[in-house]
Amino acid sequence: MATESSGSKLIVRNLTKAFRRQRDNRVIKVFDGISLDVHPSEFVCLVGPSGCGKTTLLRILNGLIPYDSGEIFLDGNSVIKPGVNKGFVFQDSSLLPWRTVTDNVILGLEIQGADKKVARERAQKFIDLVGLKGFETHYPYELSGGMQQRVNLARALIVDPEILLMDEPFASLDAQTREIMQSELLKMWVQAKKTVIFVTHQIEEAIYLADRVVVFSARPTKIREIVKIQISRPRPLSVKRTKDFLDYTDQIWEIIQEEVLKSMGREVEERGVVR
Amino acid sequence: MKLRSSQLYAFCSIFAGIAFWQIGYMLLARSYLFEAFAINLFLSSPVGVAQSFVELLGTGELLTHSYASFIAFSYGYLLATVVGIPLGVLMATTKKANYYLDPWVSSIYATPRVALAPVIIIWFGLGLFSKALIVFLGAVFPILLNTYTGIKSVKENLIEVVEAFGGSNMQVFFKVMLPDAIPAIISGLRLAVGRAVIGVVVAEWFGTEAGLGYMVYDYSMVFRPAPVFVGIVVLIAFGHLAFVILERIQRWISPWYQFQLEKEVEGMGLE
Amino acid sequence: MKMAGLYRLHERKFDAISSVILGLLAWEVIDYTLVRNPLILVGPSQIAIAFFDLLTKGELLHHIYVTFVEFILGYLVGVFVGIGFGVLMGISRTANQILNPWVIISYNAPVILLAPLFIIALGLGIVSKIGIVFIGAVFPVLFNTYAGITTADGRLVEAVRAFGGTKLQVFTKVTVPSALPLLMTGLRLSVGRAIVGAIISEFFGSKAGIGFMIAAASEEFETAQAFVGVIVLALGGYLTFEILKYTERRIAPWHDFKV
Q1: B104 with C23: CB under 8 angstroms?
Q2: CB–CB of B111 and C11 under 8 A?
Q3: Is-cis flag, bond preceding C177, omega within 30?
Q4: CA separation (Å) from A56 to A19, A63, B47, C88, C173?
Q5: Is B110 an interface residue toward A (CB < 8 Å)?
Q6: Which domains can be identified in chain A, with CATH numbers?
Q7: Per CATH, is C46-251 categorized as 1.10.3720.10?
Q8: What pLDDT, on the 0 to 100 scale, is given for residue B50?
Q9: How far is the C-alpha of A58 from the C-alpha of A55, rounded, in Å?
Q10: Once rounded to an integer, what is the mean pLDDT over residues B130-148?
Q11: What percentage of chain C reaches a pLDDT higher than 90?
Q12: How far apart are CA C167 and CA C153, in angstroms?
């Protein structure tokens, strides 16, 4: 297939992936042919029932786990292994506890062999961007959950990745902090102009943040639908209570509800505890 | 505030305990039981112990023996650290090394050092090395095991972070595994202190003319129990000191460790 | 191809066994060719010979029996007292506050130092030996019982209380079961200390027992015999370990066993 079709940033074609469960050697098919195009500077959210493999997909896109068949192209290049052209933001606190904020932010650059001093200077810009000015010498355990996630973000942005992959980064935050972070994220995104793929469980979060929301089915996972969110930007938090927003919510929730019900029965069967 | 009250209780309890001991001893001394069972041959009062302490200090015996024990302790302990940590790292990172070494480590671990002591004396003589070896055998296992566990239980997501940035295995090791394992390693060092102290004592029973273990044995044989208790107190104090010092070091090097532990406990609760 | 698969499946055991065999072979070779002096090293073959020698003469079994009796009696008393006081400290805050500092001190103290005094006080018979074994065994059991009881999951306790459970019910339905794993750990730790106690007590004047056997053999520089004693102890300890681990699994199967 064409390696660069209509200037897409990320192209995924017919991706399949299956796991062999250690416990009893059972094969669990996760993806059964996923195809997706992501455009430059687009914000795409992935939602779906638990276990549908959203996180797995993200990890495959990053090169952390291998896939079975299909193709993935980032800017026309095949994706095989992890690297700084893809920024990954993890779910929970994955900051190195023994490093200061600054040193955590420069981790990616360090790994790629950058000079520490230069890196630290560059880090300042991103620390300011995420709103943590003044906390450069703090340690992660001295920061709140929301602040830690900001450091996470800065760390991912500083390596100037082609694409930003975010794995439920706000899942461990309380509701209020979560809303604030969503709003902050959008502001930063506008400034940084990155392509983002964002995995979340919360439908409202997905609709609020995204240009398009990709809705997955239950396993074996396919893409059920891609919903284009036509709410104009910039989006204040209040937009969550507009009619359009609620309509989108209904639309997506219906699909997911169907899939969740389908998957519940299958889950018990799959857990396969032999009595 | 909370800390103070429990510490106060502890003090009172110890103080009361010692007082009871003293009073009990004095009462016992007046009773016929004392003579009948020759109690003063194996038991001493707190006052007696204190007196003995001063006496031993004065003759210089306490210091000489303590010093000798300390040397043996340090030698063996250092050896245990130098061998235990790298081996622990090796066994945690290299599967083959783990599989090959495990049976040996486990069997030596299962063998009571006391039983090995006489054989060690025969093979290596009566000198400092034998003592150090016996100390080593006691101290090396907590250190090795804790290092091993520390490295093995590095949080997966931290390793993934480095991998996500395209880091090599070496980078993962030095940037994540080692720093994360340090608090656990220090815990191992703390555990090793107690076992090393016991090792010194046992070693000295067999093979030398110096050291607290020897001193204690010697005085027991001439039916003077007070110095025995002095010896125990000194050893307890030393062990406790080493323990606390290491704890301080641990807290200084890795201040986040407390939070990590608390979070883990919390985490388990939230399951 | 199948061999390779088989190997991978049991890789750990294969490697362990081959490592041991290689190690023993190397040991034997070194001893036979280079050393040949029992004062410096003793080879596995000689140890094996000594082992069978002692076994057939009936001496070995006698020593094992004697040590075992000392061990088991002291151990049981230690466990009994340890659990008793551990429970006491666990449920009574006053008892805890009074006894706690002493327990902490004694747990790490080289109480083994008191061994000679025990002998003087209780004579050369089996009583003093049981006493020394007891001293070794009691603290890990006590400590772990106490820890097991106090770390019973607070939410589980609340759950029983929420259904109107009495204190006794809380104790039997929640505290005791959740304390079991730690209790078993304490029992296991005590085995090692108890064995050490038995051996040391025999060093100080005994006419039988593995400890005595090792000491006597060492005095006559019969290193092979001494080693037999060492190995017997190691095996005995290992066996007791495994028995306890097995019991642990039966009694408290819900606990996560990693070691």
Answers
A1: yes
A2: no
A3: no
A4: 11, 10, 71, 51, 41
A5: no
A6: 1-85+164-172+196-275 (3.40.50.300)
A7: yes
A8: 87
A9: 5
A10: 91
A11: 7
A12: 15
Complex prediction ipTM: 0.79
Question: Which value, in Å, is the radius of gyration of the alpha carbons in chain A?
Answer: 19
Report pLDDT for B201: 87
Contacts 24+ apart (CB under 8 A), C236-240: C236/C64, C236/C68, C236/C195, C237/B110, C237/B111, C237/B112, C237/C191, C237/C192, C237/C195, C238/B107, C238/B110, C240/C191
Residues of B in contact with C117 (CB under 8 A): 42-43, 220, 225, 228
Q: Do B256 and A62 touch (CB under 8 A)?
A: no
Tokens of B144: 């090795």
**Residues 6 or more apart from A200 whose CB is under 8 A from it?**
A45, A46, A47, A168, A170, A171, A206
Rounded Cα–Cα distance for residues A124 and A91 (Å): 23
Q: Which domains does chain B show, CATH number per domain? A: 1-43 (no CATH), 45-270 (1.10.3720.10)
Query: How long a stretch of residues is chain C?
Result: 259
Residues of A with Cβ-Cβ distance to B176 under 8 angstroms? 96
Taking the alpha carbons of C150, C154, C159, C165 in that order, is the dihedral positive or negative?
positive
CA distance linking residue A171 with residue B53, whole number of Å: 62
Q: Which two tokens stand for residue C122?
A: 């209780």
Cβ contact, residue pair B110, C23, below 8 Å: no
Q: What is the pTM of this model?
A: 0.80
Q: Which residues of chain A neighbour B162 with C-beta distances below 8 Å?
A: 107, 111
Least confident of A127-131, B69-73, B259-263, C209-213: B259-263
- Say if C7 is an interface residue toward chain B (CB within 8 Å): no
Q: Which chains touch B (3 or more CB pairs under 8 A)?
A: A, C
Cβ of residue C243 closer than 8 Å to a chain B Cβ: no
Backbone angles phi, psi at C117, to 5 degrees: -65, -35
Q: Does C241 touch chain B (CB under 8 A)?
A: yes
Identity (one letter) of the amino acid at B117? A
b/e map A54-78, b = 16+ CB within 10 Å? bebbbbbbbbbeebeebebbbbeee
> What is the spatial distance between Cα A66 and Cα A71, in angstroms, rounded to a whole number?
11
Residue of A84, A96, A152, A163 to mutate, interface with B, max B Cβ within 10 Å = A96
- B-chain residues near C153 (CB < 8 A): 269
